């Protein structure tokens, strides 16, 4: 049966208008309007309903029901509470089986009554349908597991207790402190058996000045090892077990047994079979199981859209979507102990077709069912979006006619703005064919076409904006960098270059985003488009095009400046800022040429190279590289002068800190301040200065000018300096390892290896020690 509507003025127009107002037609038309409004730039009012037609497609449903009688049983305990309908019987299963014939007869009649009801569906009788209910028969007897006692003996314990798992019934366990050894390591000496004390001694120190020598007396602190008074060879009695090796069990507290965790100390637990009731039995009842099988058929004159509908819903699933089903035929027959019913239903499926007009184009749409499931949309959205996409492609073809530095951005921007007014077009422009919601409405090829054209337009707008800004940035670069080169030199030129590049990029990003925001419907979409171009590296070309003039001009100024700057000023600038003095001086000192290093440092310092002030002060304070005729020999005042000059330039000069620490720790011409001197020395060592690390280790190891020796601290500094290939630190570290200072036991093999590494770096003492195979006492 078909119903039609056409927008004409012929007789019968009232009946056609009534069809156009059908709820299904109106619902489908409203969904079409919503689709157009949500995916395109057109409004719901732009969509007009032209024609409509509803076809009631008949579907034949064949249903087969099989009723099978069964006896269902269930185990029960003494906690079972029977109802008034339940009956006690000695043989519940036999009693329930005797009721099955009458139950089957009643179930078959109940099933026929249900299917014969008006508006009944073929699924009214199924496996979950309860047609009849039989009497429940039950029987209870004494539980054979517990013999009616309700409890059974616990198999995990003996009368509610078990032997302690820690002491196994002995009431004692191994001492947790000495682990049965009866003695522990001495806490006072750390298990070494000896303690180290510091003694003050006065030693003679020979000083050479201009080939003459004289003796000075200095105070030193020596380490003396004595036997520990609190232990015997590093071991002392265990205070926990008093040399017994065993203590009272901490689990059972000497009781030898523990309460059983399974029965809570009762020795028995409820019988699991009867659930602690002492009775066990069976409950039986008759039941009718229902099995339903169905299939669907189409009449020979089925609607042409049915093959497409079956691709959405298989024919076997369509009957479940039909609201109206009518029973045509019902037959029943007995087969052995079962009963079978054969029913034939007829259902009606609504197929709706409408014709609409939008943007001067006609479309034919079709759907089915009360829920309006679409079958054909006639490429509605794709055809509506094609017009805007065609205008955008035409605008992109015309951009080649513009001048390079004055591109006409308005046509491309306007065409892209019109296209992006459609929300679907905006999604596809940003996400491409990967957007699943868009691919359900338009084809993947069309989605990729929208994405490609939109990205091309956005990229062109970004390049056009760079071409517009380029002349302004070039003019600013020429004026500002030329002025900086003439007035401020090379450093000022590169600073201006950096500021021009940074400001140019910020202005370019701001202007481009402003264009995108005026094109895209939302600010978030504009920012996402910018991010997408950045991720695809499409902005590298415009950015390089913008910053290239400023960089090229700065390079040109760098090449031009040395040829036109005052030679004396260039020499002075190079000497003061290049840092060549400290590099050459330290390099000579590291190669063992201490006299040359001191001469270089003195020369560069007197010429005003601030980088060498601290190093030269340290050479003076430490009497390094002294040669005959040197006017500054062991002169604390001269050292302090260069230290002060170094700190004026750089308060964190590591060499100056080391020189100042040397004067303070030695007390030469300045009051001795061990605390401040040690702090300065460790600060320089923490800064990575190798000589400071070695000196900090020596002061800590020998106890020179400090209150007590600290072997661990000395090892730390020696190890850090040795990691930077310092030969003196490697030699000192080898001595510590040989005697086992700061470690658990002596390590002669490691000590020899460290001496060999020190000798390879040129340490003469290490070479002698390697030949002797042990430390040489001097």
Description of the molecule:
It holds the Pfam family Sel1. InterPro entries: ISR_Activator (IPR052748), Sel1-like (IPR006597), TPR-like_helical_dom_sf (IPR011990). By secondary structure, the protein is α+β, with helices and mostly antiparallel strands. Among the domains are: 384-564, no CATH class; 579-772, Serine Threonine Protein Phosphatase 5, Tetratricopeptide repeat (Alpha Horseshoe). 46% of the residues lie in helices and 21% in strands. The protein is built from 25 helices and 19 strands. Strands 1, 2, 3, 4, 15, 16, 17, 18 and 19 form a nine-stranded mixed sheet that branches. A hairpin with a 2-residue loop joins strand 17 (338-358) and strand 18 (361-368). Helix 16 packs across helix 17 and helix 22 (711-722) crosses helix 23 (727-739). The longest helix is centred in the middle third of the chain and has 44 residues, at 444-487. 30% of the residues are buried.
């Amino acid at each position: 049966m078909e119903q039609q509507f056409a927008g004409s003025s012929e007789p019968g127009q009232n009946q056609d208008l009534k069809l156009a107002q059908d709820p299904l037609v109106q619902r489908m038309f409203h969904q079409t309007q919503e689709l157009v409004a949500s995916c395109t730039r057109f409004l719901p009012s732009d969509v007009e309903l032209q024609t409509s037609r509803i076809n009631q497609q008949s579907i034949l449903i064949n249903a087969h029901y099989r009723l099978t009688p069964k006896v269902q049983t269930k185990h029960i305990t003494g906690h079972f509470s029977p109802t008034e309908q339940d009956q006690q019987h000695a043989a519940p299963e036999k009693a329930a089986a005797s009721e099955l014939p009458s139950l089957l007869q009643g179930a078959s009649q109940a099933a026929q009554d249900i299917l014969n009801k008006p508006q009944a569906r073929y699924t009214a009788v199924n496996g979950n349908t309860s047609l009849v209910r039989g009497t429940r028969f039950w029987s209870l007897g004494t539980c054979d597991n517990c013999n009616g006692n309700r409890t059974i003996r616990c198999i995990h314990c003996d009368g509610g207790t078990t032997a302690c798992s820690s002491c196994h019934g002995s009431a004692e366990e191994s001492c947790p402190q000495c682990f049965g050894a009866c003695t522990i390591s001495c806490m006072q000496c750390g298990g070494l058996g000896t303690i180290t004390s510091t003694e003050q001694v006065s030693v003679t120190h020979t000083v050479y000045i201009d080939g003459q020598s004289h003796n000075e007396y200095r105070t030193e602190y020596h380490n003396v090892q004595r036997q520990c008074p609190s232990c015997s060879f590093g071991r002392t009695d265990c205070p926990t077990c008093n040399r017994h090796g065993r203590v009272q069990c901490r689990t059972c507290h000497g009781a030898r047994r523990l309460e059983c965790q399974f029965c809570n100390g009762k020795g028995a637990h409820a019988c699991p079979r009867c659930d602690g009731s002492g009775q066990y039995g069976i409950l039986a009842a008759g039941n009718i199981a229902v099995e339903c099988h169905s299939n669907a058929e189409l009449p020979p004159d089925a609607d042409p859209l049915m093959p497409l509908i079956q691709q959405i819903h298989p024919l076997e699933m369509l009957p479940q979507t039909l609201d109206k089903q009518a029973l045509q035929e019902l037959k029943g027959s007995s087969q052995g102990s079962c009963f079978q019913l054969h029913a034939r239903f007829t259902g009606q499926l609504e197929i709706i077709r409408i014709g609409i007009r939008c943007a001067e184009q006609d479309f034919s749409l079709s759907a089915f069912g009360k829920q309006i499931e679409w079958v054909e949309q006639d490429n509605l959205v794709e055809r509506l979006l094609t017009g805007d996409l065609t205008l955008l492609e035409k605008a992109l073809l015309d951009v080649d006619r513009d001048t390079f530095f004055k591109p006409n951005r308005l046509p491309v921007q306007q065409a892209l703005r019109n296209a992006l007014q459609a929300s679907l077009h905006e999604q596809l422009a940003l996400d491409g064919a990967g957007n699943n919601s868009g691919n359900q409405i338009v084809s993947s090829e069309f989605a990729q076409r929208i994405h490609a054209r939109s990205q091309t337009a956005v990229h062109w707008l970004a390049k056009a904006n760079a071409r517009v800004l380029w002349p302004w940035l070039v003019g600013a670069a020429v004026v500002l960098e030329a002025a900086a080169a003439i007035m401020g030199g090379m450093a000022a030129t590169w600073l201006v270059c950096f500021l021009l590049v940074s400001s140019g990029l910020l202005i370019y990003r701001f202007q481009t985003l402003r264009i995108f925001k005026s094109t895209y419907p939302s600010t978030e979409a504009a920012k996402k488009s910018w991010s997408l171009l950045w991720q695809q590296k499409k902005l590298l070309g415009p950015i390089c095009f913008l910053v290239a003039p400023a960089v090229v001009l700065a390079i040109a100024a760098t090449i031009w400046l040395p040829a036109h700057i005052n030679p004396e000023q260039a020499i002075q600038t190079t000497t003061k800022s290049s840092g060549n003095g400290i590099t050459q001086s330290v390099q000579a000192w590291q190669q063992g040429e201490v006299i040359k290093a001191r001469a270089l440092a003195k020369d560069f310092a007197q010429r005003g190279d601030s980088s060498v002030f601290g190093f030269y002060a340290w050479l003076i304070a430490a009497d390094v590289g002294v040669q005959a005729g040197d006017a500054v020999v062991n002169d604390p005042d001269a050292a302090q002068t260069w230290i002060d000059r170094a700190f004026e330039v750089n308060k964190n000069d590591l060499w100056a800190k080391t020189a100042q620490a040397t004067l303070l720790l030695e007390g030469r011409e300045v009051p001795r301040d061990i605390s401040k001197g040690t702090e300065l020395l460790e600060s320089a060592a923490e800064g990575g200065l190798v000589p400071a690390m070695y000196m900090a280790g020596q002061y800590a190891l020998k106890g020179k000018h400090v209150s007590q020796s600290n072997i661990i601290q000395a090892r730390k500094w020696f190890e850090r300096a040795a990691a930077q290939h310092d030969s003196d630190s490697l030699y000192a570290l080898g001595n510590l390892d040989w005697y086992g200072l700061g470690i658990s036991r002596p390590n002669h093999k490691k000590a020899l290896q460290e001496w060999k590494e020190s000798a390879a770096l040129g340490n003469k003492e290490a070479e002698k020690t390697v030949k002797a195979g042990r430390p040489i006492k001097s």
